[in-house]
Design goal:
The protein is mainly α and about 150 residues long. Helix 1 packs antiparallel against helix 5 (about 115-135). It is built from six helices and no strands. It is found in: Membrane.
């Protein structure tokens, strides 16, 4: 199982980013749910990952991982705040969205906890997990170990 995620982690991350992007476009363009300001910021950090991870998956290029991880961490942080704003009314009053739809408005609230920002957070977390699993194991620590083994021969 570990080798599956190591070998195909970039592909899995790419699929997650495509599903998240398609889902957000479906919600806004088909169902006509107007995105709030925080939703736009989350989209800003998710949408480029579709292109970057797609190219990386096509080329099997793991060197893109350090560039993608900050996008996912920042986007995930925005998702955490957005979800907290929806679930904690005091946060919505502290920094209210003044343009467009309020950020604490729930279009979806499945099972009493699953909202759009939480789904976005889950997507960012999955991307982070898949990319950590897909990292190269050729790190400096391993190179020094190989050099030490060569010296003993």
């Amino acid at each position: 199982m570990r080798s599956l995620f190591r070998n195909y982690g970039i592909y899995f991350a790419w699929i997650v980013s495509m599903v998240a992007t398609a889902g957000s476009l479906y919600l806004s363009e088909v169902l006509h749910y107007e995105p709030c300001r925080l939703c736009w910021f989350q989209r800003i950090f998710m949408y480029p990952q579709v292109v970057l991870l797609g190219i990386a998956a096509y080329r099997n290029d793991r060197n893109v991982i350090p560039y993608i991880l900050p996008l996912s961490f920042i986007g995930g942080s925005i998702s955490v705040y957005h979800y907290a704003e929806q679930k904690i009314p005091a946060l919505a009053k502290a920094l209210p969205c003044k343009v467009g739809i309020p950020c604490d408005f729930d279009y979806l609230n499945w099972f009493g906890f699953l909202t759009i920002p939480l789904m976005c957070l889950i997507a960012f977390i999955l991307i982070i997990v898949f990319l950590f699993a897909a990292r190269n194991t050729n790190e400096p620590m391993q190179v020094t170990t190989d050099i030490q083994e060569t010296e003993h021969l």
